Each structure stands twice: as C-alpha cells, then as structure tokens.
C-alpha cells in the first residue's frame, strides 16, 4: 500500500503552506485538523510557516487539536492558537519540549468546553500551568510523564474541573497521598477510571481515601506503586465496583492480603481484567482468581507460583472465558502448560509466552490448527529460544487476523518465516525480529504485503541495508516505530527518507557504534542491491 491521495495532498500542502493563497477557504474543518497534526509530526511549524498556519489553520471552528512530537511548538504558538477563539472538545499536547506553563496558561482560555485533555511528556509543565485550567465539561485527563507536576497542581485541577471521570497520572513521581486524598474527596463517585502507575510516593492511605469516596471506580492501575501494601487494596475491593485492577510489581502486597483481595473481587463477580506481574501469589489465590466468573484478561508474568499445575488449573477453570493470557517469565513452565492452553482455551486472542526456556511449543499446534485461532490477534515469543521455526510457521499461517508477533532471539527465524507472515498476515501491525537471521529480501517482502505496520524491530541484524528501509518507506506509510540499532549497513539518509515518507512522526532507535568510519551505501543500478561504495577503487574524474 502506498499513501492515499488524501495523505499525498496533505503532505504537499504542509510543505508549501506559506506559498498557497487563501488556503483556509478551500479546506474543510476535518482537513484543517489533520493538516495541523501532520505539520507537528514532521517539524514544519517553523517561524517562516507559523504566520500561515495561524492564518489558515487556527480556525474558530477547530474541535480536535493534536499537537504532538514537535520540538518547534512553543508558548508563542499556543498563545496565537488561543487568540483564534476556537473552543475545542479534545486537546492533545505531547512531547513538545518548548512548551511551558506560560503556553498552557494561554491555552487554558479556550478550554472551557473541552471534554478530553492530554498534556503528556511536557517536561516544563508544573503545577502553575495546571492551576489555570477551568472546565465543567472536562471528563478525561491524561498527564502521563509530565513529571514537574506536584500536589498543588492536581488539587487545583480537580477543584476547577470537578466532573473528571477518567484520570491518568502515570509516572508523576512528585505526587503524594495529599493530592490523592483530595482528588478522591473532590471527584468522589464521579471517578470511574484511575491510573497512577509508577507513583512511588503513594501509600495505602491513598487507597483508603479512594475506597471511602470513589464507589463507582471501575478501572484502577497501581503498577509499580512500590509503597502500597494490601490493606488499602482490600478496602477498595470491598467498597468499589472494580472490573479491572492492575497491581503489577507492588512488592509490599503480602500473599495473605492478596488472598483476601482476590476472594472479595471474586465475590463481587464483575472482575474482567487482573494484572499481577512480578508479585507473590499463593496457589489458593490463583485458584480463587481462576474461578472468578467474568475473568477475560489475566497477566501473571514473572509470578513464581505459576507452574505447569497452576496453568492447568487456570485454563481448565477459566479457559472458556479467557481472551488474554500472559505467563511470560514464569521460568518453570514446560510444554505441559502449552498443552493445557491448547486443550482448554476456547477463545483466547492474546498470548504471552516470553522467556520460557523449557518450552518448545509443539503442543500449541492443536489450538492453531483446529480453527480456534480465526480471531487470534497477538502472541509474544521473544526469548523462548527452544521454540522451533515450525511452530512459528503454524501460528502465522493459521492466524489471518494476527496483529502482533515478537520473536526476538529465536533460533532459525529466517526469510522463510518472513515470507509466511507476508502472505498470511495482512493485518500485522507490530513485529520484533531482533537478532534473528533475516535479510533484506524477507523484510522487503513483509513491507510490500503488510502495509499496516506500525512498529518493526530489526536490531542486531547486521546484514540489513538501506534496501529494506526504502521498501518500508515506500510501502508502509503508517509506521511509527523502527528499531535498527546495530544495523551498521543502514545509513541515516535512508532513515531520514523513511521519516519523510511516513504519515506519522517516526521514532527511530539507530545506534551503530559498530559502523565503519565513512560508511557510504549506494544502489547498484545493474543488480538493484545496496552495497558499500566508500571503499571502492573508483576511477578519478578527469
């Protein structure tokens, strides 16, 4: 697939916006919003273009504003946007290092009617910027990784926006129980979803406040909140209507407390998603968890008590309902677990089997061969080094809806597997082939036939050249992430070409300390192959 005509036109307009007269008169609201988005992605908000962007795109009718991944966006641009008089319902400012409190304060003037607000990864945003935001219509807020925010900012935000229902505060390391207690009291029963992952100052006092005030809290994630013990979680299970709970890496939760927690969640009968990676879970807790009537998603990655017997019990009890199951890094598992999954899981769509050193996976074939995999979406196999390529072949040839597959470090993953993916998995979006034995031929075949790729990891494959990057650039316009560290024969020029061709901003990890000095690759017009030319003995030009 190549870019649509619409995307080609938008790209052309974005690059020549300063020279097109009366452009705003010919663009619909939808296309103004799309054009603004793409100009940010491709770093086109230059000082030369900003007056034209302001005149043509900063329209009073703007409803959805997405300004992401742009090192050029600054407070001045946000002030100009605010003066346009638009009243958007959804605003995203993400990964813009020049944006500070001053810009957010200017933007706050047009946020009276906003419903969804994302201010993510803004390293200069502090509580001062949040205090200026006031909206009675705001229901969803995401402040992930804007780590300058402290308690006063969150307190002011919930005071000024009292109808927030969904709140993501992941990786805000300066927040404490003070902010959590206040937001619980202020938002109360209106709060439905809360994510405070990686907030390492929060303790169980916050859980008690949430349990007391937020009766309608349904989705909660406390991953890596390392100061939490089980007492607050138990109270939440008693008082809140939790249907999804994430407590991965909450190491202070004792196994006995976890047993009480799981028994309360089971008694409620509404739990559908449970994530408990890397913590101690007793066999009794696993048994109660498996018998929870509505459980569809279960992540037990790295849980020491997950043995072959435990997987047999879980799949036998809950297998008919499970849609997602992750037992990666449970190092004692063998092929008995694969046999249990194949025998009991009737509708699983996502399977995590990473780093299982005793697993060969032949027993999984039954699941993929008998028609149950027709809706299968994702499987992660990275690090399960004894898995033979024949199992991977079976998976990819019987999963037409496959979107994600990771095979980093697997043996004998060659172009044959790449060709199978290319011809059987047209919907694939994410792939990892790190340290596999692919060549340009295999990657090019995938690029030509799998045009929906968003992420591909090829790090450590030293034979790859610019040829595969050019193929990705010309056939996969939706690509957003590319991992090619160690691929010394891939040049930065090819990577730049891919970035220019893509619709979205592309994150590229391309560290090549092993690259020879002065490396220069070029296409041989006779063979079509990309070869080194810096070390050739070329005749001097007379």
Structural class: alpha/beta
Q: Which spans of ≥5 residues are poorly predicted at pLDDT below 50?
A: none
Query: Biggest sheet, open or closed, and with what strands and sense?
Result: 18 strands, parallel
Radius of gyration: 26 Å
Task: Give the percentage of residues in beta strands.
Answer: 5-15%
Number of discrete helical segments? 20
Q: How many strand units?
A: 20
Give an account of the 3D structure.
The chain has 542 residues and is of the alpha/beta class. The protein has helices spanning 5-15, 29-41, 50-56, 75-83, 101-107, 127-130, 151-160, 177-187, 204-213, 230-239, 255-268, 283-290, 308-318, 335-344, 365-369, 389-397, 415-424, 440-449, 466-475, 492-501, and strands at 64-68, 90-94, 116-120, 140-142, 166-168, 193-195, 219-221, 244-246, 273-275, 297-299, 324-326, 350-352, 378-380, 404-406, 430-432, 455-457, 481-483, 507-509, 521-523, 530-532. α17 links the parallel β14 (404-406) and β15. α10 (230-239) packs parallel to α11 (255-268). The mean pLDDT is 93.
């Amino acid at each position: 697939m190549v870019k649509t005509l619409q995307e080609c036109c938008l790209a052309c307009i974005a690059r020549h916006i300063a020279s097109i007269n009366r452009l705003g008169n010919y663009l619909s609201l939808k296309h103004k919003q799309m054009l603004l988005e793409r100009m940010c992605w491709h770093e086109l908000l230059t000082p030369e273009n900003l007056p034209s962007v302001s005149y043509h795109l900063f329209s009073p009718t703007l409803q959805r504003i997405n300004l992401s991944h742009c090192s050029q966006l600054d407070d001045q641009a946000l002030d100009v946007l605010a003066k346009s008089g638009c009243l958007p319902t959804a605003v995203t400012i993400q990964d813009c290092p020049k944006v500070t409190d001053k810009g957010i304060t200017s933007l706050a003037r047009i946020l009276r009617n906003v419903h969804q607000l994302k201010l993510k990864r803004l390293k200069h945003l502090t509580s001062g910027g949040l205090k200026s935001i006031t909206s009675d219509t705001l229901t969803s807020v995401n402040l992930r990784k804007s780590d300058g925010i402290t308690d006063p900012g969150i307190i002011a935000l919930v005071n000024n926006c009292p109808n927030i229902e969904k709140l993501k505060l992941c990786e805000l390391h300066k927040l404490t129980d003070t902010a959590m207690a206040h937001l619980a009291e202020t938002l109360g029963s209106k709060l439905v979803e809360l994510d405070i992952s990686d907030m390492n100052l929060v303790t169980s006092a916050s859980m008690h406040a949430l349990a007391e005030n937020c009766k309608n809290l349904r989705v909660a994630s406390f991953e890596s909140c390392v100061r939490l013990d089980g007492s607050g979680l138990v109270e939440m299970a008693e008082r809140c209507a939790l249907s999804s709970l994430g407590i991965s890496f909450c190491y202070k939760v004792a196994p006995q407390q976890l047993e009480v927690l799981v028994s309360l969640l089971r008694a409620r009968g509404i739990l559908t998603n449970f994530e408990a990676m890397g913590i101690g879970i007793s066999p009794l807790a696993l048994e109660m968890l498996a018998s929870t009537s509505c459980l569809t998603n279960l992540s037990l990655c790295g849980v020491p008590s997950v043995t072959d017997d435990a997987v047999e019990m879980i799949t036998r009890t809950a297998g008919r309902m499970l849609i997602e199951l992750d037992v990666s890094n449970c190092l004692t598992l063998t092929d008995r677990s694969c046999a249990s999954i194949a025998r009991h899981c009737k509708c699983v769509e996502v399977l995590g089997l990473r780093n299982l050193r005793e697993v060969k996976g032949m027993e999984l074939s039954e699941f993929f061969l008998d028609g149950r995999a027709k809706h299968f979406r994702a499987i992660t196999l990275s690090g399960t080094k004894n898995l033979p390529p024949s199992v991977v072949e079976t998976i990819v040839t019987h999963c037409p809806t496959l979107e994600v597959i990771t095979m980093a470090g697997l043996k004998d993953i060659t172009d044959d597997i790449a060709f199978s993916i290319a011809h059987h998995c047209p919907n694939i979006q994410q792939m990892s082939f790190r340290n596999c034995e692919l060549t340009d031929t295999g990657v090019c075949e995938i690029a030509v036939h799998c045009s929906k790729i968003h992420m591909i990891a090829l790090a450590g494959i030293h034979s790859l050249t610019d040829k595969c990057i050019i193929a990705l650039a010309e056939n996969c316009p939706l690509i957003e992430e590319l991992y090619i560290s160690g691929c010394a024969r891939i040049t930065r020029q090819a990577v730049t070409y891919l970035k220019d061709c893509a619709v979205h901003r592309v994150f590229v990890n391309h560290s090549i300390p092993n690259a020879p000095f002065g490396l220069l690759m070029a296409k041989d017009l006779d063979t079509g192959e990309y070869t080194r030319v810096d070390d050739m003995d070329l005749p001097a030009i007379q």
